[in-house]
Design a protein that fits this description.
The chain is an alpha/beta fold. The protein has two domains: about 110 residues, Roll (Urease, subunit C, domain 1), CATH 2.30.40.10; about 300 residues, Alpha-Beta Barrel (TIM Barrel). The protein is about 40% helix and about 20% strand. The protein contains 17 helices and 17 strands. The strands form three sheets. Strands 1, 2, 3, 4, 5, 14, 15, 16 and 17 form a nine-stranded mixed sheet that branches. The radius of gyration is 22 Å and the shape is globular. The N and C termini lie far apart (about 45 Å). The protein binds zinc ion (ZN). Zinc ion (ZN) binds next to loops.
Amino acid sequence: MNCMFFNGIILTMNSKNSVIQDGCIVVEDDIIIDVGKYSELKNKYHGYEKFDCKNKIITPPFINCHTHASMTLLRGYADDLPLFEWLTKWIFPVEKTLTPDDIYLGTKLAVIESALSGVSCLNTMYYFMDMEAEAISQAGLRGVVGHVCFSNNKKQDSSLTFNLVKKWHNSNNGLIRVSVDPHSVYTVDPAYLKELHQLRNELNDKYGSQNAPIRWHIHTAETSDELIKMRESFNSSESSEVKRLVCESYDGVFDYLNRLNVLDDQIVAAHCVHLTDKDINLIRDKSVNVVHNPVSNLKLASGVSPLPKLLNHNINVSLGTDGPCSNNSLDMFETIKITALLHKGVNLNPTLLPAVEVVKMATINAAKALGWDSEIGSIEKGKKADLLIIDLSRPHAVPLYNEFSQIVYALKSSDVDSLMINGRFIVENKVMKTVNVEETISKVVKWVADKFPDRSINS
Ligand SMILES: [Zn+2]
């Protein structure tokens, strides 16, 4: 599509966080070929389809850097429980009954919810990831999909991951990528963690590239007792090497991972709530990418990540919603606002997490975390045409003094006007163009009514 967006306020999220008033973005096919003042560009380009963005902000779309997309099906299924009980008594048992068709349906709902709230890309870890990749592809979103690996499923995991990479990495015009995803330190034993790290390196050599790397995506330090749970799970291992590694003492989860030699800049580490000083230094020294999931951490009462400390250490931090079963939404506007508020509140310091920093986390920092920043995360000449257009006409959006503050504190997902991904409108004038919304919603309602007849209020 060759088009020109004019009259808008552009938040470029480039290295200077430049804001262009009366801005203009020129798109040819899937690439941004120019960005600047409309007054300077309007006579340079002719014959392009024009979109008037008066009274609208144009930003890079948000990137949800840690989620489990198809868990939309379990939104509200088990709430107000501690994480371990939530996982072992509720989530793991029901997950065993989910089919590939269920995963496809849940992901379809997730991509609709995401696109309508301004999200272009999901970093998602779950089962039957072929189906998640399929649903994300069909909707035209970007995704990094990873099969979640556990010690008790070792035999299948490696081949599932290998096949996923072979089939999907850098597929669908480069919109889909694959990662290697160990679930956590308490569900994946140390020998298997090392094996999965090695697998990622081998897959990267064969299928990855500098601009499309295969990441290692893992839950880390979400609760304070992960190393205790790790010992309980693996100290009866038949391997003396595993026993030795499990029983040594560690100064935090990252100290443990470092001693296994698996820490590097290809890691996307979700949560990072309970960190020792040593952990924070290791995250910085090894350039690990952290994903902050404040809503999920609050809902499961996991604690509050020491985010200001991480930022002071120049660590790359992005944002995620976590799964829609522990949030219970995929709304990044909400996550952005709660991030800014939470750390001010608990630290009694209103100067922490300025609005522009939080918008960076949801855009360019996330693109860096996924190794995708040469193509997305900012609005710059030569990058992919991914644009989020936000309407400023509703009462809560006026007046406008500072665009970043408006996004973080005032605007809502319902203000999303249009979303372009790779030069294609996915949402235009608030209408989802690539997936049938009503049909998907009614299928989900029917799915719940059939599966849980006594729990569904819609049955
Ligand atoms: Zn998660």
